[in-house]
Amino acid sequence: MEKDGVKADLDGTLDEFLTYDDYLDSKITPLDLYYLEDEKLARQVVELGLRGTGEVLKREEFESRKAAAQASRLSKRSEQKTLASAGKELKDNFLRALAEREEANRSGKNHSIIFIRDHNACGQEISGYIDYTHRLKCEDFEPYFSGKKRLLPQSTDLSFYNWKTNEVVSNDSANYQVITNNSAGVIFMNKKDRNSVNVDPQASPCENSPRVYLKSDIYHHVAIFDHYIKCII
């Protein structure tokens, strides 16, 4: 268990100190300076823990925590700036729906599954289910939102079917396990909360996995199955 002084530092009070000397100075009292008559000596006394001011961080630990806090802030700012849909003029319903879910899927609050049925560059009809969260982490979505590329299922996605060649592929992803030996058809079990997403259009959607069918001007048939992650206690 951490002592009160260290716990307070962990709670974010280090942000108010620009340097380690500033941190030490905050623990020096006017009485200390009166008796020691030397600011540098007073800092050394505090750093050595010779005063009853609670546990004091060593210089290396102070700088390490300051660096970690800064890295965390930069990471959060970077995540906010990396929304591929930011600033894009999205006229298609499907792309707007993806943009609305981008932040939640990047942060892990939602693990959406995308269904797309359309034609590939060879004119062959293909369909499949895509782990949106996984694809966002592995691929740059800016070209999709800007209209430079079309988002299509791949043989590396959760499922893929080529209606011309009859190629059928299914793969587990970082977030889902594909269950095919089920009487209800293909089911995707979320690896985080162990709840399943039933993509059968005839099945009733679960409370935490609503489905949305969308009319798109650039895709033949699309749907989104949102899976809101339940916390496991």
Order of helices and strands: HHHHHHEEHHEEEEEEE
The termini sit apart by 22 Å
Overall form: elongated
* Beta fraction: 15-25%
Q: Which structural class should the secondary elements be placed in?
A: alpha+beta
Tell how many strands the DSSP assignment holds. 9
| Major β-sheet annotation | 6 strands, antiparallel
- Number of helices, where a helix is a run of at least 4 consecutive DSSP H or I residues: 8
Point out poorly predicted stretches: 1-11
- The amount of helix comes to 25-40%
> Cα-atom Rg, whole angstroms?
27 Å
Q: How many domains comprise the coordinates?
A: 2
Mean pLDDT: 83
Please give the order of strands in the largest beta sheet: 4-3-2-1-9-8
Detailed description of the structure:
May be involved in spermatogenesis. Pfam families: DUF4464 (PF14713). It is found in: Cytoplasm; Nucleus. It comes from Silurus meridionalis (Southern catfish). Keywords: Cytoplasm, Nucleus. The protein has 233 residues and is of the alpha+beta class. The protein has helices spanning 4-10, 20-25, 30-36, 39-47, 59-81, 93-107, 132-138, 142-145, and strands at residues 113-119, 125-131, 159-162, 167-170, 176-179, 187-190, 196-198, 211-214, 221-225. The chain has a 6-stranded antiparallel beta sheet with strand order 4-3-2-1-9-8. A 3-stranded antiparallel beta sheet has the order 5-6-7, with no helix packed on it. It is 33% helix and 18% strand. It folds into 2 domains: 4-81, no CATH class; 93-225, no CATH class. It is built from 8 helices and 9 strands. It is elongated and about 90 Å long.
